[in-house]
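INTERNAL AUDIT FORM
Audit reference: QA-55
Scope: verify that the stored structure record matches its stored sequence.
Auditor: D.O.
Record contents follow.
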Amino acid sequence: MLGLLNNVLYLGLSFLGLRTISPEATILIVSLAPFVTSGISIMLGGASSIRHFAGMAVGFLSVYVVLSLRLHGGEDIWGMVLVALAMVSFSVGMLWYQRTSMHHDAIALNGGQNLSAGIMLVPFADQLGGLETSLGYPVFAGTFLHLVIGVSVIDFLIWLALLRRIEAGIAASFHLLNPVFGIVLSWLLIGSVIEGTDLLGALLVLIGLGLVMSVTASKKTTKLGS
């Protein structure tokens, strides 16, 4: 189930959506994950907090501030739907892991979800024609290795470790940092210009995350007191 939700649907649908919409629009949609995750968690009986939702609202506002001048407009509706479905799948995957799979060894579980996802994607392998030739190009090979080792192995192991420590809705709030890191990396790697709205958005992100994480801190204090 985790292979289906996290690898096949989340990564697969995100990549399909990126073919027709901008990276900025993709980040904006994925940044809705905290709202969706918290909403599903509350429907399943999880706790809610006004401060938590206030922090997420501030965080999403910051994402919009950062990306508002970068969105090109006229985005493909079908591509946006695919990315939205990918985001919902990832939210469900987080909650599924916390409710059913946290007792498993994280390394074995991550290997299992990658293997099961690969098996499920075998019917689509005919679309990989020319992969051997493409791997001969350093840029493509580096990108491919990053997706395999960086995203599917290292990133997911870090993510599973995070979900063992904090609630899924709060963990999802860290998606609000995506546009900040994206803009910094684009400045470092390809020389993009950092705008004043980027700095304002980064400040709002920190404020939003501070509100969200204060919920976790107050819960830990309450438990220690009891």
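Auditor finding: record pair retrieved intact. Residues 22 and 72 are 7 Å apart (CA to CA).
Action required: none
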